[in-house]
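Field reference: sequence -> structure
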Amino acid sequence: MLRRWSKAVTPISKFGSQQSHLNFVKDVTRQSYAGVAPAPTTIEDKPQPPVVKLDKMFWSKPCSLALPRDSPLKAEEPDYQGIKRFMLKLMLFYSKQSKSIRGANVVYRRIVSQIDKPPIYEVFNLEKTFKTTFSLLVLHMWLCLRRLKQEGNEGVEFGQYLYEIYNHDVELRVSKAGVNLLLTKWMKELEKIFYGNIVAYDTAILPEAKPGDFSNVIWSFRNIFSEDGSSTPDAAASQSVQAMARYARREVSCMTLTDKEALYSGNFMFTSLKHENRSGKGPQ
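Structure field:
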């Protein structure tokens, strides 16, 4: 039986030691290679990645993430007619639960689209490993679950469907990373990390939290950047951490502005990092 995400109130201190979590994610990401490809005999010109100006990004005014009505990216609910519609009604295809499950699948695809593609790693200067991808996945799950809670019990129920889809996907990702033995053990560890992060993000974004709390949570080893458990980022990582904190805070506000219909249908898109990098104008 899957744990209900809406009851994630256990203190973070009960989730095990920081070092054990760090060792776990390193074990999952460790890979070996049989050989190294020979060096090319000629040097080819390759297009250079765009220059990332982190200090000028994520300062723009938050706005709704809902897709325009005429967007080709919108997911439309199937509208069958005649005998087919009648049969599907009998099979509860159009029941509230079935619609919610389909909507939750679309929402999860929006999350995966944001965290599996190169821009988010290029912008924040992250290496794409199981650890970073999982941490980004949890961050974006938190963004959605937090917004869903604002819709009361209906949103919490929808969030449970979303969590179950997430849980199944994480199991597949762990297996793909090469962990086939003791899979249940690893999934339990990841569940602890997930709930620990959810509580930490919720706490750090409260009005009474200190200004630097959210950045510190993002930096902490169980999240995205820190590899060694150090309490503060070094000079090289500080700019990326601050930019990630601005990004997440802005997405929180954007999600709040996103209407209920777009939320439940999955007809929204997270902020395009390519567009943000091109149009960043710095603090206003």
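Note: Confidence is low (pLDDT under 50) at residues 8-26, 28-43.
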